[in-house]
Amino acid sequence: MINSVDRQIELKIYKGQSGLDKIEDVWEKLYGSIENKRLWHLYKLYECYVSTMEDNPEEMYFFVFFKNLEAEAIIPLKRTIRKTLGFKTSVFVMPGYPDIPYRDFIITKSAHSEMFLQILLLELNKHSELSWDYICLPNVFEDSNAVISLKSFFSKNISVFGKKVDHCNYIKLKAGENIIEKLSRKNREELKRKRRRLSDLGEVTISTAASFPELNEAYLQLLDVESSGWKGDAGTSIKMNNKLDSFYRCLMNSFSESDDCEIHVIKYEGKSIAAQFVIKVRDVCYTLKIGYDENFRKVSPGILLKDYIIQLYQNRQVINYINFCSGESHNEIWRPLHKDLYDFFLFNKTMNGKAAQMLIRTKYYMRPLYRNRIKPLLKSVFGRKYRDLRKLLGLSRI
């Protein structure tokens, strides 16, 4: 508990899986009071992540801020050690989730968000076991709670650095409006060609599973088609990763309780050739995972599955947005809207913090040069030892 910045604010720190369990009711109540509710603000998403994916759950910290006994904010951070220029650097990073690239603080709409960061940093600097060199807030939207907190934040002892790194595509649906008709003639014709290629195969069906046991059957089909190609060979598919499999099963079980998990499957002559895993939160549908049999890649099954949910939801009142959870170029066929994503860093005035600041700033500004010139050169010189060199210099993590 601390009493700095605002004497009415009380900070409590919860740690690990047991700490997360204790704040479930607090989190759910706080979620009900935030303004722009999104998938990455939900307690059950964190619960699935910590219980299935996290290698060191005891390094997960949940900083909960109370005012008059009511929670006003939760800042989830994971403490880890990274190497920067060969030195061990103590880092707090906002945790992420497989196939969901977005992150944020959970803050009630009535709160002054900048004060929570000030209080948090004061508390971290009080305890040696919470020592830190920098805090990393990756993949946050410009209008997120985290960035709004940073915009009003000032400290002469802390340096802040942010850089745009990506964007996400989404589509806004309006009742009675046909998305396809608004596309350019070229894009409309392209979609028609892709649909025709699929129908020309012969007996093709697209179905939606939204409840058990159909949901579980569709999930197994997703595992099989995703693992049938290069991901299976490389061991990166869900089926080949027990933790990732557990994470998706947890999502499926948790969100299906409120009918908010769906899996869409394309079948050719009764055999699954593609599948898509989606989560719905309020009026937004998130496309988390698409897998397909690479023998059918010429019919663009991934694009056709996204096309299917657009057709499915555009005349329903329950879904107003479809978030593709990526900024991939093939999304442009629908002329989607987009929101920019940023990486932000807060650097402490420690020696390692200053070294990390120098390296991170340099890498972000030189990223195009690094990727196009330096990286190929290092690979050609060091060969297989290139990955070890990246880890030694801290280039693989920042």
Description:
The protein is α+β, with helices and mostly antiparallel strands. The protein is 36% helix and 27% strand. The protein has twelve helices and 13 strands. The chain has helices at residues 16-22, 24-31, 43-52, 114-124, 145-151, 185-200, 214-226, 230-234, 242-256, 301-313, 351-382, 386-393, and strands at 9-15, 60-67, 70-84, 87-93, 106-107, 134-141, 159-172, 204-209, 261-268, 271-281, 284-292, 321-323, 337-347. Strands 1, 2, 3, 4, 5, 6, 7, 8, 9, 10, 11, 12 and 13 form a 13-stranded mixed beta sheet that branches. The longest helix is centred in the last third of the chain and has 32 residues, at 351-382. It is globular. 33% of the residues are buried. Mean pLDDT is 88; it is low at 1-5.
What would you report as the Rg, rounded to the nearest angstrom?
A: 23 Å
The fold-level CATH name of the largest domain is: Aminopeptidase
Given the C-alpha coordinates, what overall shape results? globular
Briefly note the structural class of the backbone: alpha+beta
Q: Indicate the CATH architecture of the largest domain.
A: 3-Layer(aba) Sandwich
CATH class of the largest domain: Alpha Beta
**Topology as H/E string?**
EHHHEEEEHEHEHEHHHEEEHEEHH
The CA-CA distance between the termini, in Å, is: 32 Å
Secondary structure tally, helices: 12
Low-confidence stretches: 1-5
Quaternary class: single chain
Number of strands: 13
Q: Which whole number gives the mean pLDDT?
A: 88
